Amino acid sequence: MSSDFKNKLYQACTDLANERIVSIQNAITNAQDAANNETKSTAGDKHDTARAMAQNDVEQKSKQLAEAKKLKMGLAQFTAQSGKDEVALGSLVSTNTAKYYISISVGKVDVEGESIFAVSPVSPIAMAMRSKKAGESFEFNGRKFEILIIE
């Protein structure tokens, strides 16, 4: 894999984090608009219940937004070229079963026709392979994985 590939992978993760932030911000705006419209159009217990539900929705979405912003900040902790001889933050790890990008938890990312799993450095699978080198193996969920290449 080239450094260009890792740059594209890093950018794809950044794009996913940004999309998640925009989507949640839009959902918050819609929930706030719904709450405001409910205030104008109803009265009594129904009004109070609807407003409380809308407020709960805004609070939930605000928590999701904070988490999405944390994801994006996680990317700022390293560059696309981060990585060493051993598995660490920024590593692209090819195993005998799949490829993992130790970065942020956004799941499967497709770049140039390849599927890479972007996982948090504190995810269970990243913890299982932490500090391992190419040629070494690790176990996760009762399965044995061999690390082929670390970039």
Structure characterization notes:
- The relative contact order is 0.15.
- The longest helix is centred in the N-terminal third of the chain and has 39 residues, at 3-41.
- The protein folds into two domains: 3-75; 92-150, no CATH class.
- It starts with a helix and ends with a strand.
- It has a six-stranded mixed sheet.
- It is 51% helix and 21% strand.
- Helix 1 runs antiparallel to helix 2 (44-75).
- It is α+β, with helices and mostly antiparallel strands.
Summarize this, please?
The protein folds into two domains: 3-75; 92-150, no CATH class. It is built from three helices and six strands.
Question: Hey, roughly how much beta strand do the residues contain?
Answer: 15-25%
- Identify the overall geometry: elongated
Largest sheet: 6 strands, mixed
Q: What is the percent of helical residues?
A: 40-55%
Mean pLDDT: 87
Number of helices: 3
Main β-sheet, spatial strand arrangement = 3-4-2-1-6-5
* SSE ordering: HHEEEEHEE
Task: Give the helix/strand class.
Answer: alpha+beta
Report how far the terminal alpha carbons are from each other. Answer: 8 Å
Number of strands: 6
Parts with pLDDT < 50 across at least 5 consecutive residues? none
Structural domain count: 2
Give the radius of gyration. Answer: 21 Å
In terms of quaternary structure, the protein is single chain
